[in-house]
Amino acid sequence: MKGRPALLPAPLTIAAGGSYAARLVAGYGDGGWCPERWTLDGPEPYAVRLPGGQPEDSESRLQPLADGRVLIARRTDGRYHFSLLYPSTPDTGELPLGAVESERLTLLPPAPDGARVYALAPQAEDRTAGRPSGTALWLVCGGTFGPELVTVLAGSCEGGAWLDTDGRLLALDRTDEAGQTRTVTVDVEHGGEPTELLRISEDSNDRLLLADPDSGLLLVSSDAPGTERIGWGVLGSHRPVRFPEALHPEGVRVTPFAAQPGQVLLPEACAVALRMTTPEAEWVAVWWPQQREVRHVPVPEGWLAGAGRWTADGQLLLPYASAQTPCGLARLNVPEPEGRQAAASGQAEPPALRPAEAGTDASRRTPRADSSRWPTGGC
Questions:
Q1: Residues 6 or more apart whose Cβ sits within 8 Å of residue 337
Q2: pTM confidence score
């Protein structure tokens, strides 16, 4: 979990709401790539390719919107040019949106409204530290007049998770000039200085891996326990973050990729899908904070690793593509764990403050305590 490899085309990005998804597929033209949109909300999923006038580069980035259009970011001559693609007869329809000058750019996870897209672009690099001296946060789709600069943050920023269902509070992992990483919160409506969200210990490096706005459940990564481990906490709770052994299996890389929505005030009963990776295999496990163990589930052949979403009633949807099924969606009914009804009756601790009520003072919603008090076992 330390560092991130060079990005390749994402296997699949699912739009807010889950009706659409998009990816780049290889083999178009002379070794090029082609955007492909998946429709997931019908009786059967289906895919439509959106070829342009020439093959796309592997550095192009895609993000589907809730209305079915697909944002593409193409890198040309030191700029990223943004357009919206949509099926049209006989060719692909394309609506240019403008450009952002940057050598590197990362699209952030879909905003909850499904209409806005944000991106991070590093500023000039600090040659002494070997990292960007600042990071620009851009609204690249959904603004009034093309891309709009939201704010510039000191240090190098990555990650990205939405803390509220309105899509106002955005959490980012920021590395400062000393090389320390902490998660901060940005109010995308008002910009301005970010507020610190995670500080597990004074010297720890803390990252936010996954956030569920409905329940307030947070999945974090921190080296506060002595080695880098995954832990969980609740937005607004005063209880310390916990680092269960179930999320630290020996020899397995664990990556949370989806949390069950609709579990309002029930963070301990919120199911989380985990991508389990070893040098020999890759599979999916499901974990609930109220459980001590993970539950391993079968994955379809050709699963687009790291892609998936939950329904509110506990069905895990995993998209896949194989020679026999070029566009598939597996629907896994994962049984609820024993004790969920007890949690629903009020034994689970609710968040102390809902994100929508928080304004911009995100630091007050973060539990702070000596890391030596934080349990590393159990649930």
A1: 288, 290, 291, 295
A2: 0.86
Contacts for 367 with CB less than 8 Å, ≥ 6 apart: 233, 237, 238, 239, 240, 241
Cα(23)–Cα(36) distance, rounded to whole angstroms? 5
Tokens at 329, concatenated: 């969606």
Closest of 174, 141, 182 to residue 156, by C-alpha:
174
CA distance 108 to 138: 10
Per-residue model confidence as pLDDT tens digits over 99-146: 999 989 999 999 999 999 999 999 876 555 566 789 999 999 999 989
Say how far apart CA 283 and CA 271 lie, in whole Å.
Answer: 16
How far apart are the C-alpha atoms of 73 and 80, rounded to whole Å?
6
- Residues 353 and 236: their CA atoms lie apart, in Å, by 5
Instruction: Write phi, then psi, for 126 (nearest 5 degrees).
Output: -80, 105
Is residue 341 within a helix (H) or strand (E), and if so which, with residue range?
Answer: helix 340-342
CB 139 within 8 A of CB 187: no
Distance CA(21)–CA(155), nearest Å, equals 32
Which residues, 6 or more positions from 277, have their beta carbon under 8 angstroms from its beta carbon? 252, 253, 254, 255
> Band of the pLDDT at 340, cuts 50, 70, 90?
low
CA distances (Å), 158 to each of 151, 184, 211, 319, in order?
A: 14, 11, 15, 25
Q: Of the candidates 183, 287, 195, 197, which has an alpha carbon nearest to the alpha carbon of residue 243? A: 287
